[in-house]
Amino acid sequence: MDSYPSQHGHQHAAYPPQLSKLEVLGYITDCGIGLAEIHYNHACERLTIKRFDGTLDNGLLFGANEPKVGSFSTLIEGPFAYLWGEYNGHIILARTCQQEPSTRDLYEFWNGTDYVKDYTSAGPMSAFDDIPKGAIIRSNLFGKHKKYVFVGVSKWCDSLIRVGAAEGSEGPWEIWPVAMTQGINKTDGFRYCIYPHMFASHTRNAELMVTWSEQWPGGVFAGRVKFLTEELVCEEECELID
């Protein structure tokens, strides 16, 4: 679930495409994308989840043939929530007011040069064409001029951790394979579902905590990726942004 905090201490989340009941031969149907608000009670350590009523007849925000905003990754910056999701086989970028994520009319879509209201004009982010899973974060790993970082995995089942960087949320993105994940319970097969975890990372030391899943019926494991860095000349380069 891709989540982001609101100014009221709650958490809003873009939940994955809602699925219909199983159909003939076990096929399932993608119904669209919606939103839920998550409340965490620290005293009793319990989560409560409330779904927003969307503008469509089925209560969703976007339909089955519309953009799956937030299904790939989400990120908060300033007054906006940035939501990457699939549309027509490509990853596109949308943004909306972080305080009103359930208001469909406030969504705008990046067309390659500007944000527009018409999602059919959204431009595909080709750097993610072979990337099915991952997350976009803000980090100082690549310096203050490339503060947007991607960590994920390709669709080629090669078990490689892929890392990318960009100057802005809109890109352009450069993505590279940087490390091979290891199997523990299941040493054969491939590893997937690769995601970063900033709470356990030490970016000042160029270390990033990453988790991955072994091929079923394997487990989920974590590892720390250590990046080789050069000594910085200017102290301003050391300023943390995440």
Description of the structure:
This protein has strands spanning 2-5, 11-19, 30-41, 46-51, 62-63, 73-77, 80-87, 90-97, 108-110, 115-116, 133-138, 148-153, 160-166, 174-180, 191-196, 207-214, 220-226. It is mostly beta strands and 242 residues long. The protein has two domains: 2-124; 133-238, no CATH class. Strands 1, 2, 3, 4 and 5 form a five-stranded antiparallel sheet that branches. Strands 6-7-8-9-10 form a five-stranded antiparallel sheet, with no helix packed on it. A hairpin with a 7-residue loop joins strand 13 and strand 14 (174-180). The two termini are 20 Å apart. Residues 1-24 and 232-242 have low confidence and may be disordered.
